[in-house]
Specification:
The chain is an alpha+beta fold and 549 residues long. The chain has three domains: 138 residues, Reverse transcriptase/Diguanylate cyclase domain (Alpha-Beta Plaits); 214 residues, Alpha-Beta Plaits (2-Layer Sandwich); 89 residues, no CATH class. Strands 13-14-9-15-16-17 form a six-stranded mixed beta sheet. Strands 2-3-4-1-5 form a five-stranded mixed beta sheet, sandwiched between helices.
Length: 549
Amino acid sequence: MQLVIVDTAQIQPYIFGSNRLRENLGASWLVAQATQDWAWKHLPEPNNRGPKNNFTDAQIDAPNSALAAEAIYAGGGNFVALIREKDAAENFVRGLSRQVLTDAPGLHLLIDSHPFEWNDSLVLAVRDAFTRLAEQKRMRAQTAPLLGLGITASCQGTGLPAVEWVTPVDTDTGYPASAEICAKLRAVDKANEELENRFATLLKSKFEFPYDLDHLGRSEGEFSHIAIVHADGDSMSERFQACGNSHLKPEDNRKYIDAVRQLSEQVKTNSHSALYNLVDKLIQRIDANQTSITHNPDGHLVAKIEMRENDKSKRRWLPFRPIVFGGDDVTFVCDGRLGLALAAEYLEDFNAANQNLGATACAGVTITKTHYPFARGYALAEDLCQSAKTHRAALADKSACMDWHFALSGLAGDIGEIRRREYRTRAGWLHLRPVNLPEVAENELPPLQSWQATEKFARVFQSKDWMTRRNKAKALRDALRQGETSVKRFRTLYLCKDDQVELLPDGFAAHSQKTEIRKTGWVKLSNDDAHAVYFDALELADWYVPLEK
């Protein structure tokens, strides 16, 4: 018997290496196909794809058993299966590799096929296989593709020789494309069909997911920014590791298969449920005329997100599009003003859906110009997600965490370098990020370094008193940059009423330095670094649209 494991390499540049949303969508669908449907298709017949009709000990020992293969699980970019005959395993590897080469050029697969005896530990065999695959990834020779012979045109997306001139639907201009890009574009319609079917009951023939970043709610001449959101489950690898640790003995092989398959399916189902709830809440947020999403606190307009109509289908484009989903990691793009609200809502929905597993997720959000290099924006979102995970590891309650950055003037370096350059002053750090999302009762105020507190302050600075006096908000931001003395001077100039100098806004739970914070705008955290309390919220005031009916 052969244990066969399929893994993928260099997925991020393959999916997010283009600024064209269509190509990103097609690439994501092809990656999912390679480790799911195509892998299923190439398993020898008859085979098992679910919890019923598994290999039994008797079938394992019987050379003439009718069952030729069993898939253990498919998820997280991996496909793990047991195949009875070595020749059949080789045919599986050959067939899947050939299909990926022809239907998804540029996608790199790594496959490990090794003999396995049922009286050995399946858990240890799987771990050994993944160790070998990790070694393959490290040892892979980096090949330089042939960039063309004679007279060739270069692909705008990959730089490789173009094989076709493509003109995507709903666009006016075409461009030369390599085989890799052509394959991604061919997959777009299938990817969109699957997505629309999944959310059909919510879309109701009124809305549809956009194919183009320009259809995410941008306002011509006013607003043209998107949010790239990357969320990832916390400690998921440890959960699968623990699943194996409790079934190390050979006699537990069947229990291990059942347990790891159940865990994989449960995570996938819960993630889909969280994403479904997120789209549902977004649609509920649309105005009664179903053409826009507006934010009107105190009766004054802060933001209006236009939902343009598709001239062909006569449906409105939602300002939101999932790109990668199906497991514990999710990546989506949306209008820049919705990014933080959608990210926070997804984390809460993910936590609720995975309450039985005790699982949480963290997220990173990059807000950038619509046509800024997408790969850089996504890389920063990943970096921010890791920053949130690092912050979570230091928390006692291990709640979900989130970090974000407004990349409006380009990106140079990692998030640490960016913040030292843009958010470090003589007074200290201008930000309180990352923040967590603790459970806070309705009658309670949130802790200082939390999303709930930041969001409360953002709403304060979106009130008419602040939004109609732009110089007041700008003066507070400038004062925070200068330090505590400048903030006190700001209060004297702008918050003086009836000969009394008012304190800065309140909105967080009791804190040992609470009164002093409202006087100076600064706080010292446990690491003894000074942080500006209100700067994050002042940045959000122009960008934040809450997700509420």
